[in-house]
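Dear H.,

Thanks for agreeing to be a second pair of eyes. The structure we're designing against is below in token form, covering all 239 positions.
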């Protein structure tokens, strides 16, 4: 990891402060004064000091969880069970958090990590990370539905959504099923997009996010660690 990212992630200094500390020769790696903030380091193998303070980073953890309805995508909540409550005690490492949010009544794929900088970059609008949902609605989805979503949806309050890809799976009076892929994360976006079309979402499940797919073999409420290969792919695009 880049030295400046490691320092920021550990909360020891901001980017601006790092530049000042380098100029004043207060950052060292294995006793050598650092000249470049972009130097590649490994805090588990090297002794990194910032103004005399040792940089210590927790082991990076990455999990893919199949969220239950009724569970909130938060680190803590006074009323409801959170996604962190679904983790075993040994996996609740310091700093772990869900990347993005799902509504409490929405099920499906949630990524969790204690790699804060990577998680925040995945959510940054410039990356346009695709999210695909399985959706059930309370009425038919007509042949014009895919074009309606592809043209971008504007809500009554003027909020505009980027084009989305809709695939109708089945449609009949009183019930429709579809898959929809969006690249944003506006508040209640999927539900509001279908409302704009004229139907109400009755069931919502995220089945993919950032290239990760929710496996049928992962029960609701269960989770698994990402493989080393999956972590490499994730870092390739976002680290």
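And this is the sequence the design step returned. I haven't edited it by hand at all.
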């Amino acid at each position: 990891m880049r030295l400046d990212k490691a320092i920021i992630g550990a909360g020891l200094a901001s980017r601006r402060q790092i530049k000042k500390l380098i100029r004043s020769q207060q950052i060292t790696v294995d006793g050598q004064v650092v000249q470049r903030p972009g130097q590649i380091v490994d805090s588990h193998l090297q002794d990194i000091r910032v103004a005399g303070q040792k940089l210590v980073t927790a082991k990076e953890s990455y999990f893919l969880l199949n969220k239950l309805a009724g569970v909130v995508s938060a680190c803590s909540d006074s009323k409801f069970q959170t996604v962190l409550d679904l983790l075993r005690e040994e996996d609740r490492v310091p700093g772990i958090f869900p990347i993005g949010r799902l509504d409490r009544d929405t099920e499906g794929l949630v990524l969790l990590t204690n790699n804060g900088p990577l998680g925040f970059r995945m959510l940054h609008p410039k990356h346009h990370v695709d999210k695909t949902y399985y959706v059930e609605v309370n009425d038919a989805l007509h042949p014009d539905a895919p074009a309606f979503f592809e043209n971008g949806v504007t809500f009554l309050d003027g909020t505009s959504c980027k084009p989305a890809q809709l695939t109708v799976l089945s449609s009949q009076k009183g019930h429709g099923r579809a898959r929809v892929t969006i690249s944003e994360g506006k508040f209640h976006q999927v539900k509001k997009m279908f409302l704009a079309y004229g139907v109400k979402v009755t069931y919502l499940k995220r089945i993919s996010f950032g290239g990760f797919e929710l496996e049928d073999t992962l029960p609701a409420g269960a989770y698994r660690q990402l493989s080393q290969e999956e972590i490499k792919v994730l870092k390739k695009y976002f680290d």
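Two observations from my side: The longest strand covers residues 201-209. Residues 228-238 form the longest helix (11 residues).

Warmly,
E.
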